[in-house]
Amino acid sequence: MPVLKAKGVDYLALKIREIAEECGIPIVENPALARALYATVEVDEEVPPTHYKAVADVIGYILKLGGSRKRLQAK
């Protein structure tokens, strides 16, 4: 089950993106999904089933781009 590992707005969101880039983690923009997860899920909580399809679509897109499954796992 997917788990939310980080969330933030403004400066914190920028910092999360910077760290992701430094670690080679792909970034996919999906503002509607990001807002929904920010509003409904706390850090280290499982993503609710209502968002599984959207999260799976993002993960599938990353894998098609050649993203590593290992990099997508929690560190």
What features would you describe in this structure?
- This protein is mainly alpha-helical and 75 residues long.
- The chain has one domain (10-72): 3-Layer(aba) Sandwich (name from scop).
- It has helices at 10-22, 31-40, 52-64, 69-72.
- The radius of gyration is 12 Å and the shape is globular.
- The two termini are 15 Å apart.
- The mean pLDDT is 89.
Features:
globular, name from scop, 75 residues
Question: Can you lay out the helices and strands and say which pair or pack?
Answer:
Layout: H1 10-22, H2 31-40, H3 52-64, H4 69-72
Can you describe this structure in just a few lines?
This protein has four helices and no strands. The protein has 75 residues and is mainly α.
The main pleated sheet reads as: none
Q: Strand pairing plus helix content: what structural class?
A: mainly alpha
Q: Nearest-angstrom radius of gyration? A: 12 Å
Distance between the termini: 15 Å
